[in-house]
Amino acid sequence: MTKSDNREMLSLVNQARKKGVRCGKTWQKPVDPLKWDEDLQKAASQKSYDMYKHKYFDHTSPDGETLSDRLDKLQYDWKTIGENLAWGPTDVSKAVDSWLKSEDHCKNLMKAEFTHLGAAQYGTYWTQVFAKPRE
Fold this sequence. Notes:
The chain is α+β, with helices and mostly antiparallel strands and 135 residues long. It has helices spanning 3-19, 38-54, 67-73, 92-101, 103-109; strands at residues 21-23, 26-28, 35-36, 78-87, 116-122, 125-133. β5 (116-122) and β6 (125-133) form a beta hairpin. It starts with a helix and ends with a strand. The mean pLDDT is 96.
C-alpha cells in the first residue's frame, strides 16, 4: 500500500468509528478515532506477504506464528491487539467495505479499546492490525 492508501485506510476506518455503524444485528456506537502506527503497519505487511507467499488465509501462519508473535518480534509493547484479514478486494475502499459487512470484523474495527491501526496489502491479501499500546 502506498502512503496515500494508508491515509485512505485510516480515513475510512475513522469515518465509520466517528459515525457508528451496524455490525450485523448490533449497533456499534461512535468511538474515538485511531492513529496510524508504523510498527503495526510492518506487522500487517509481514502477514499479508506471508499469506501471499505461502498461499494460505488464516490468522495463524503454517509455522504457528500469531499476531502476538509478530508484534513481540517487533518489540511492540501492547496491551490489547486484534487483526482483520481479507482476501480478494482490489482496493482500499473495497477491503474496508468487506470488513464493515462482516459482523465480527466490523466489531473488531469498532472496538473502543483500540487506539492505533496499521494495515497492509500484498496482492489481494489484506491485513489490519489494531492495538492499544501499554502506557
